[in-house]
C-alpha cells in the first residue's frame, strides 16, 4: 500500500537511485570513449590491467632489444661491405701476381706491376681500417674475441666473433710489391699466402653473412612478436567504440527520463496539500 507522507518519498528515493546508477554508467562510458580503453586503469579491471601492464613491459623490452640489434646489423653490414671489397681486390691482386711470377718480363714491366700491387695492398688495408660503425671495428684487431648483443626482452644474448683481418689477410700480401718471380709463384700455390688470404676472406664473408642473416631474422621475429602482443592487449583492454557510442545514447536518454521521474516524484508531496484545502 502506498505511503502518503511528506517525510518519506519512496518514489523520489527510487528515482534518485536509478538516476545515480545511470549517471555512474554514463561516466564509465564517457571514460571509455575519451580514452579508447575498456580498462584504462586498475579501477576498471585490476586483473586485466595487471596483465596488460606486464605485456607492455615485455613489448618495451623487445623494442629496446631491436634497437640494439639494429646497431649490430649496421656494424655487421659495414664489415661485410669491407670484406667484399677486400675479396674483389684480392682477385685483382692475384692476376697481377701471376704476371710477377713470370721471370721473362722486363724490369720496366716488373716495376709497373709492383706499383699496381702496392696500390692494391694499400686498398686492402684501407678497407679493413675503415670498416668501423659507431666507432667500433671488428676487423682491424682492436676488438678481439666474442661480441654479444641482447636479442630479446628477456636479456638473452647472441654472440658473434671478431676477425683480425689485418693479421690474417693484409699481412699475408702486404709485401707483394717486393716479391721475386719465385716468391710470387710460391704465393700463388695451394698453400701460398695469396691463396690463404683469399680463402680467409671468403671464409669470413660466409661467417659474417650468417651473422647478418641471423640478426635480420631476429629483428623480424621481434617485430612480429610485438605486433602479436599489441593485438592481445587490444583484445584485453580496448573499448568497442561502436558499442560504447550506442550505449552512450541509451544512457543519455535514461538520464533524461530519470531526471524527469525524479522531478515528478518530488512533486508528489505537493498533491497532499490539496487534501487540506
Automatic annotation (TrEMBL):
Residues 193-276 form the Flagellin C-terminal domain. It is found in: Secreted; Bacterial flagellum. GO terms for cellular component: bacterial-type flagellum; extracellular region. Keywords: Bacterial flagellum, Cell projection, Cilium, Flagellum, Secreted. Residues 6-142 form the Flagellin N-terminal domain. The keyword Secreted applies. SUPFAM superfamilies: Phase 1 flagellin. Signal peptide: none annotated. GO terms for molecular function: structural molecule activity. InterPro entries: Flagellin, Flagellin_C, Flagellin_N. PANTHER family: FLAGELLIN (PTHR42792). Flagellin is the subunit protein which polymerizes to form the filaments of bacterial flagella. Belongs to the bacterial flagellin family. This is Flagellin. The lineage of its organism: Bacteria, Pseudomonadati, Pseudomonadota, Alphaproteobacteria, Acetobacterales.
